[in-house]
Amino acid sequence: DVLIPHREIVRDIEACRAMGCEPVRFGLIPFSDVISADDPDELLRPAVPFGSTKLIRLWLEDKTPLHWRVFYDTAKFDWRTWAPAIGEFALNDTTMGRVTELGAIKDLKWKQPVFVKPTSDLKAFAGMVVEIGETVAERLAMATQDSSLSDEQPVLWAPHQEIICEYRCYMRGRTMIEASRYRTGLRADHKAVDEIERSHLRIVANEIAERFTPAIFYAMDLAFMPTGSVKVVEYNCINCSGRYEIDRAKLFKAVLGC
Questions:
Q1: pTM (2 decimals)?
Q2: Residue 231, SS3?
């Protein structure tokens, strides 16, 4: 997938080989629905593909190989489904978050900082903080966005909240497999977790998972707040989630054993 940095592909390949598995490399051709491979017969093998959100879009349109396993459910990965299910654990819960079409708010100048993101997990654009006096349209003009983005896109908006740090927890059902820090404040900060962090994250993530699981495998992004509470930022499809500094072989073993 051209949207995945080469170094990340190399790390995935090394993790697979450390397990004794030889990965299949495939390509998503830009501006088309074509999936390519050096040996087309390789695409006929059962596999769990990892790529960008374009992979999920093709899977939803039945344009991926028949035996590929994708862990995604359109409704369950949408904020409108999971936020009510987990209640107070949601960073932007239903008492704070509001949903509207993008066109209704994109040209508004805000009187307070707000957080805006699509309700779904397909990353029509990345979640963003819109500062006082800015518009969503101005921020979008400076950001990467999906070519299919339209004024009808459902978006969530809520007052901006300060976050200390964020972690991505990879889950199998109600059990955490692995985790990595990926942000401190508003700064990218990819770090492996130590055993104390891992234990704390496992307790919280497993507790939240008792309320809601969007798929057999998924990623849960957790935010540590200044109040000491831990909140869910969003759920992500495991097939297109950044793996940061997790033990990739441990994740791949869990997925292949499903």
A1: 0.93
A2: strand
